[in-house]
Write a structure and sequence with these properties.
Strand order of the largest sheet: 2-1-6-5-4-3
Helix content: 25-40%
Number of helices: 4
Radius of gyration: 15 Å
Structural class: alpha+beta
Protein name: SnoaL-like domain-containing protein
InterPro entries: NTF2-like_dom_sf, SnoaL-like
Domain SnoaL-like: 11-121
CATH topology: Nuclear Transport Factor 2, Chain: A
CATH class: Alpha Beta
Number of strands: 6
Number of domains: 1
Largest sheet: 6 strands, mixed
Strand content: 35-45%
Pfam family, one: SnoaL_2
Organism: Chelativorans sp. (strain BNC1)
């Protein structure tokens, strides 16, 4: 897969996220995708990734804005940096109570791309303490 094709794959995945389209997002992921989230154990498999994404949408209405996608030569690795902007819909365990408060924070994702041209690993990079502080702000 070329770096250009990988960039298009990542752009499609993030557009699916912004549209809250779980199935379109899943079409970008391999069946054995590994998902790493801060302060959580690695989850492996498309079914677990689908559940994580749907669960996230239950708590947050969020969009990735000001997206910068970077790809490695050969297209087998990529990264995306963006600003996550949204509304806190329901109380996340261990976070402040949800009152519909808006939030904004920097975030990033790292990706591995498999030989089939699908995302085989996604590592979420964000600071949970910074998110918690943003949700406390009035």
């Amino acid at each position: 897969m070329s770096a250009t094709e990988t960039g298009a794959l990542i752009a499609r995945a993030l557009a699916s996220f912004n549209a809250r389209d779980v199935e379109a997002m899943m079409a970008c992921l391999s069946e054995d995708v590994a998902v790493d989230i801060p302060s959580a154990a690695r989850e492996i498999g498309a079914d677990k990734a689908r559940w994580q994404l749907a669960n996230l949408f239950r708590f947050l209405q969020a969009e990735a804005k000001d997206i910068a996608i970077m790809t490695a030569a050969g297209g087998f690795r990529a990264a995306a940096e963006f600003t996550l902007i949204g509304t806190y819909l329901a109380t996340l365990p261990g976070f402040p109570p949800a009152r519909g408060q808006p939030f904004r924070m920097a975030a990033g994702l790292f990706f591995d791309i498999d030989d089939e041209g699908l995302i085989s690993r996604v590592t979420v990079c964000c600071d949970p303490a910074r998110l918690s502080a943003a949700l406390r702000a009035d």
